[in-house]
Amino acid sequence: MGHGYLYIILVTFIAMTMGTIAWRYTFEEDIINKVSFSRLFIIRLVGENIGLLNPSNIIGGDTYKGYQLSKEGIPYHKSTSSLVLSRMIMMVTQILTFIIAGSVFTIIVQDSNQLKWIIFGSILLLIVLTIATYGLLRFGLVSSKVHGLIAKLGWNSLIYKFRKIYVQLRCFYRDQRQRFLKAIGFNILNWLIGSLEFWLIFYFVSAQISVLDALLVDQGVLVLKSFGAFIPGQLGIEEFSNKMMLSIVGVKAAGLWVAASIIRRSRQIFWIAVSGLLYLLIRRHRPSNVTISTIR
User: How many whole angstroms separate alpha carbon 281 and alpha carbon 38?
Assistant: First the structure.
């Protein structure tokens, strides 16, 4: 690729910037002003890479983000509600983007049974996520009999936290509607810009694909990878997803999907290394008066 590799890094950097802006809009304006944008970008970058390498995936990464934000003066319950809202918006916009891109591809470009099954699975996943999220957030608003069972199981503290998050999210949606919509918009930009990575890879290896193909492949890989989220780095899952999605858009040569997988992995390693250095830098400047007990 030569100097073309720098464009890969630049595109992913811009996509991550859009993701950070989207996350910023899930906070109340007076709260988020306590943290600079560059600091928020670093916290997100490190947290996302912790999630990538950790079997707990987004749980480990988002826990780290909440802890770091607490050291910046943002109450832990505020950062938790923001992280839940941000993650919900990310997952929903990602799946919807894939469903739309896949449907357009099926109608205009090529009818693919394999793609139809992936779209069908994505729709089911979206339904399950919607029901699960609604159920968890509403779990505390149940009958007195269920509350009695919860008390016996010792889950009162957990249910209280769920209810608190639900109230915060409902109030945010009601009172901060514009910020909510901006978060959705910038998340969509995150996915659209990020998909250009595939387009650039094939452009620089002289095997061009269309922007729609790149968007479909990128979002399809993200959806398929989610089923192997518990595997650190989604090793093997991502490569298989690359091969499957590229074959759907007509790229079936083994050399091409292997090359694309290697380039994408090298890009991941680059940002993991950057986030590792930033993590060490953050630890060196850790405030001495912050402990775990202060954020619980």
Answer: 14
CA proximity to 126, closest of 88, 159, 155, 162: 88
Contact 157, 296 (CB under 8 A): no
Q: Is 142 left (phi over 0), alpha (psi -120 to 50) or beta?
A: beta
> Per the structure block, which two tokens stand in for 11?
């595109």
What does the DSSP assignment read for 74-123? --HHHHHHHHHHHHHHHHHHHHHHHHHHHHHIIIII---HHHHHHHHHHH
Single-letter code of the amino acid located at 294: T
Q: Are 250 and 214 in contact (CB under 8 A)?
A: no
Length of the chain: 296
**Angle, helices 196-204/177-194, rounded to nearest 10 degrees:** 20
pTM higher than the cut 0.85: no
Domain residue ranges of the chain, discontinuous segments joined by +: 4-284
Query: If pLDDT is split at 50, 70 and 90, which confidence band does 175 have?
Result: confident
How does DSSP classify residue 259?
H
Q: 270: pLDDT confidence band, cut at 50, 70 and 90? A: very high
**Do residues 223 and 122 make contact, with C-beta atoms less than 8 angstroms apart?**
yes
The sign of the CA dihedral 264, 268, 117, 94 is: negative
Q: Are 119 and 102 in contact (CB under 8 A)?
A: yes
C-alpha triplet 196, 202, 205: angle, nearest 5°: 140
For residue 174, count other CB atoms closer than 10 A to its CB: 9
